[in-house]
Amino acid sequence: MTRRAALAVAALMAVAFPGAARAETVLVAVAANFADVAEELAPLFTEATGHAVRHSFAATGQLYTQITQGAPFEVYLAADDERPAWAVAGDLAVEGTVFTYAIGQLALYSTSIDLADATAVLRAGEVDHLAIADPETAPYGRAAMETLEALGLTELYAGKIVIGESITQALQFVASGSAELGLVAASQVQGKAGAWLIPSELHQPIRQDAALLAAGANNPAARAYLAFLRSDAAVAVITAAGYAVE
């Protein structure tokens, strides 16, 4: 590449990702269901902007609690659209920066049961344990409970639910055999045998919103990260992982 071409590329990057000329690091709080995608996006972000990214993964509610307690996160990738709005209302996030970066899907998953007729399996309830994420802190856990209620199965599974502190732990319960069934994020089990996509009408949409947190308001890497999430390269990775994007 000639010097002139290199300067042109640098200029274009500066327009697309303000602040890319001086490399910074952004600390991103990421909902557990999006962990694998975030890790895949990280090197693409660095390649596109020159900035680095560090992640902290947990359930959306746990991350929000940490944010309210002063955790130094600069960007918040939640698994719902409520807590980013709360963060803005509480002056913990920057107004006007919230947007939906992904729309999640719920799946029934098992490593030991044939789910060819998944609805029948669920309705039969002939299992000892059904793993879900904590519905109080994890939107996918709340969607799981909404699904059971929509199917009229709340009472049937009342004594069989095993709660993970995050959707990742719920999946681990199934993978380890501690639970025969799990209601997990579809992105976690995409392409795996033993997964069945839950019809979206059985639960509220899982809109996953991002926000620039107050701690990152003056960090060009934080603003660049949010811009990158909307780029064609990032959207391609997000949709390939089984999420919808508006």
UniProtKB/TrEMBL annotation:
Protein name (Swiss-Prot/TrEMBL): Molybdate ABC transporter substrate-binding protein
Name of encoding gene: modA
Keywords on record: Metal-binding, Signal
Family to which the UniProt record says this protein belongs: Belongs to the bacterial solute-binding protein ModA family.
Origin organism lineage: Bacteria, Pseudomonadati, Pseudomonadota, Alphaproteobacteria, Hyphomicrobiales
UniProt signal peptide: 1-23
SUPFAM superfamilies in the cross-refs: Periplasmic binding protein-like II
Gene3D superfamilies listed in its UniProt record: Periplasmic binding protein-like II (3.40.190.10)
UniProt entry tagged with the keyword Metal-binding: yes
NCBIfam families hit by this protein: modA
PANTHER family for this protein: MOLYBDATE-BINDING PERIPLASMIC PROTEIN, TUNGSTATE_MOLYBDATE_CHROMATE-BINDING PROTEIN MODA
Domain of life: Bacteria
Keyword Signal: yes
Classification via InterPro entries: AvModA-like_subst-bd, ModA, ModA/WtpA
Pfam families, per the entry: SBP_bac_11 (PF13531)
